[in-house]
Recover the amino acids of this structure.
């Protein structure tokens, strides 16, 4: 564990938020008198749970709030927060960093927070007690208290040791146990008095209720027979109802499956409807485009025939006669086509063919006249261009034909898919309707059986019973319903003949018995609790005494070493005194959890002898010698049970230069395992520090912090 940070805001002279970071080792706080150095020490004691204002050098609790000056306004609240590095889990919480915060406002409202979670003052005291820290121990020494251990009372000395040894938590537990024990004993006396007061009345009620024993027997038998009778009838009805459950379960499973199939079929149908629409078919209908291109192709072919005829006539005109081969080919084609048309015997085809022959002859005649003034080369060039255009048109027509054929195939496929989806949807729908009809019929059958069971329940309610009793009753399977019904009638007649029983007497007897039994149990529990608390107190006393005695031996061994070092010789040891000795000195044996427990187990006296002086009592020591004795005890305690940090406010003020250097060297030696925060004016102590904080007073009366790392 390491002390990381101290934050002050509105606390005494630190009006503005002030943060002191601690890197470990020794941190010295220096500055002129009255600058606010000791307020830092007061902040540590205050955050550790100091409850009395005097512990923070104040008259009232709100005096710790900055009161304001002529140039600075007063603050409405004060808060102090201390942060620890808890990576080694020194504190018993599961946090790598622990922050304890205390706030107080001018209306007196005080709050404590542990990692931003609000807690009680008791929780804070317990938390630090388990970690060997506290506001009244030896780990924080205020200004002018360097000889605190010497001038303290024996029981206060013991408290200082116990806090650093971690025994204060056991005193708190013991104090709580003693308070609980006192409360338990008071409750025992009350319970005993109530039991003695109730006993005569309880005995009277017992005698009166004994007369009703026979009536209770009849009621018990009636209850048993009615349970057998109605239980068997109800069980049969329940068994009949239970047979419907597996049937409903199977039917519901089928319906769930049918609904899933129906939903899937419906989804497929919706999808098929979307795919079967013309918009979902890829491509465009090119029928009109193809018709237009066909007409254009026919026109171009006619033009090509006309141009070829012109070329032929031009060749004939030049030679002065027709080409016999070309005429033979023309007549041969005419004869072949005419025979095919005549064989088909189709007048429309014959008519169309004759029109085509007429057009070709006209084209030849027109070509004969036009060719006379025409140029054969130009005609051939024009013929070639038209032939290329015809080929391009044929390719376009072929491409559009392929696309139309693909589109037709898609439409056919989509129509087939839609038909299959619609068929599946209708089948799934019919299946769902059939299952729903079966379930309604099954519900009607179950309702008839439930009606029979409600009749039985009505009879049970008329009898005065509760239906739940008969549902769980384990009836005899051999019970005869006919004889049971006769027995029920007989028992009812006997109860009617016995007359009415005063219910208030029965209730009074039952309540009195319950109250009496409750008090007896409470009395026994209180006796057991008192015994447990006494055992706990004895165990805590033994544990405190054992650990304290064991630690005291080690402390005395270390004390002798440091006393010899600081005084250059001599002897010193701590001696345990008993409670009788404390009482004879006029000290009170009563107190809070901080003092009473220590007083019960005795206090501590200091026996010493100083070299070259015949001094054996503390009252004969000088101020510097008192400080040296207290410091020797402090370092002995740190050696045996090192606390996480020590706060010293001018503990070296009464020391000369030589002893100040010894003090600084000892602090330096212990700084490897314990952090030190030292307020000092001593140059030798400053030299041993790892970091310096300077405190100055501003013109507005507030403290200011300056820092310096010396490494």
């Amino acid at each position: 564990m390491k002390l990381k940070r101290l934050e002050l805001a509105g606390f005494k002279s630190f009006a503005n938020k002030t943060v002191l970071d601690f890197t470990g080792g020794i941190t010295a706080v220096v500055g002129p008198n009255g600058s606010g150095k000791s307020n830092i020490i007061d902040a540590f004691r205050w955050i550790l749970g100091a409850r009395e204002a005097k512990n923070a050098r104040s008259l009232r609790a709100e005096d710790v709030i900055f009161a304001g000056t002529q140039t600075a306004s007063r603050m409405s609240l004060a808060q102090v927060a201390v942060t620890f590095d808890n990576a080694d889990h020194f504190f018993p919480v599961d946090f790598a960093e622990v922050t304890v915060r205390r706030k107080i406002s001018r209306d007196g409202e005080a709050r404590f927070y542990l990692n931003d979670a609000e807690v009680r003052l008791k929780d804070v005291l317990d938390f630090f007690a388990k970690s060997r820290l506290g506001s009244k121990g030896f780990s924080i020494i205020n200004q002018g208290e360097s000889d605190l251990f010497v001038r303290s009372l024996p029981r206060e000395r013991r408290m200082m040791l116990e806090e650093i040894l971690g025994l204060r938590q056991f005193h708190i537990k013991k104090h709580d146990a003693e308070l609980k024990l006192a409360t338990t004993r008071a409750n025992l006396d009350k319970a005993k008095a109530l039991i003695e007061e109730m006993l005569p009345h309880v005995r009277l009620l017992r005698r009166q209720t004994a007369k009703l024993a026979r009536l209770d027997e009849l009621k018990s038998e009636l209850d048993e027979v009615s349970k057998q009778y109605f239980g068997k009838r109800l069980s049969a009805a329940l068994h009949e109802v239970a047979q419907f459950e597996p049937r409903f379960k199977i039917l519901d499973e089928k319906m769930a499956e049918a609904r899933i199939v129906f939903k899937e079929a419906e989804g497929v149908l919706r999808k098929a409807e979307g795919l079967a629409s013309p918009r979902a078919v890829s491509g465009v209908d090119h029928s009109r485009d193809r018709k237009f291109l066909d007409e254009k192709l026919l026109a171009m072919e006619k033009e090509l025939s006309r141009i070829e005829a012109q070329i032929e006539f031009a060749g004939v005109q030049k030679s002065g006669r027709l080409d016999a081969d070309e005429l033979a080919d023309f007549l041969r084609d005419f004869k072949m086509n005419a025979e095919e048309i005549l064989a088909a015997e189709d007048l429309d085809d014959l008519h169309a063919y004759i029109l085509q022959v007429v057009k070709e002859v006209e084209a030849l005649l027109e070509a004969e006249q036009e060719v006379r003034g025409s140029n054969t080369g130009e005609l051939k060039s024009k013929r070639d261009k038209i032939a290329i255009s015809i080929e391009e048109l044929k390719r376009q027509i072929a491409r559009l034909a392929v696309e139309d054929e693909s589109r037709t195939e898609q439409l056919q496929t989509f129509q087939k898919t839609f038909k299959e989806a619609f068929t599946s949807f209708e089948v799934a729908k019919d299946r769902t309707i059939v299952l729903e009809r079966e379930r309604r019929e099954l519900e009607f059958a179950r309702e008839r059986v439930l009606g029979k069971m409600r009749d039985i329940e009505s009879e049970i309610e008329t009898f005065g019973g509760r239906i739940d009793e008969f549902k769980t009753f384990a009836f005899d399977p051999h019970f005869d319903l006919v004889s049971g019904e006769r027995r029920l009638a007989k028992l009812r007649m006997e109860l009617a003949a016995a007359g009415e029983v005063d219910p208030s007497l029965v209730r009074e007897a039952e309540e009195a018995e319950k109250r009496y039994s409750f008090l007896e149990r409470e009395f026994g529990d209180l006796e057991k609790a008192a015994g447990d608390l006494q055992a706990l107190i004895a165990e805590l006393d033994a544990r405190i005494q054992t650990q304290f005695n064991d630690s005291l031996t080690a402390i005395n061994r270390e004390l002798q070493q440091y006393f010899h070092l600081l005084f250059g010789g001599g002897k010193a040891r701590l001696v345990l005194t008993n409670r009788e000795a404390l009482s004879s000195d006029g000290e009170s044996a009563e107190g809070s959890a901080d003092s009473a427990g220590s007083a019960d187990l005795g206090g501590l006296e200091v026996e010493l002898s100083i070299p070259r002086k015949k001094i054996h009592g503390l009252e004969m020591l000088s101020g510097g010698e008192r400080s040296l004795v207290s410091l020797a005890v402090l370092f002995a305690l740190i050696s045996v049970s090192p606390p996480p940090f020590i706060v010293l406010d001018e503990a070296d003020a009464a020391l000369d230069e030589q002893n100040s250097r010894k003090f600084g060297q000892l602090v330096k030696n212990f700084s490897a395992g314990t952090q030190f925060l030292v307020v000092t004016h001593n140059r030798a102590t400053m030299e041993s520090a790892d970091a310096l904080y300077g405190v100055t007073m501003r013109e507005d009366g507030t403290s200011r912090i300056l820092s310096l790392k010396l490494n």
